[in-house]
Amino acid sequence: MAVQTKTNGPARSTAPSEKKDERAGRDQLIDGLNSDLAGEYQAVIMYTHFAAKLTGPYRKELRALFQAEITDELGHAQFLADKVANLGGEPTTEPRAVPSANTPREMLEQALAAEKQAIKDYSERIHQAEEFGDVGLKVNLENQIADETKHKEELERILIGWEH
Ligand SMILES: [Fe+2]
Ligand SMILES: [Fe+2]
Fold first, then answer.
1. Spacing, Cα 73 to ligand 2 middle (Å)
2. What is the pTM of this model?
3. 10 CA to middle of ligand 1, Å?
């Protein structure tokens, strides 16, 4: 009996700290994904808000662009909320504050800043997902970065030569 306890001892003694590390990694990942989710909810509200407030000769085109992005951002939000729940966390319902903008140019600049932030955040999250060993999550986040990059490049193209 005593021998059996001894041989099982070392294996058991490493298990709790491994579990603790895994839990810490999971909690960190959940926090990061919830921060990304708050950013996606912000994007949905921001593009809806800007679409409503748009004025000027390019209102129709910009409104169509913003509304098309809402669809993408909502898909991202649903993916992140699902993932947080699947990891055992509570998906946030709090969006990040929406930046204020009154002219089309200000709206485009605020939207561009938000897209750049999302790309930066997802780059960090991909690294975390890799460390956590979730290859599926890494691939999904890579796809979301590809969407945000497309949004960013489109906004940059529109802003070239925009004077007012
Ligand atoms: Fe997004
Ligand atoms: Fe985006």
1. 6
2. 0.87
3. 46
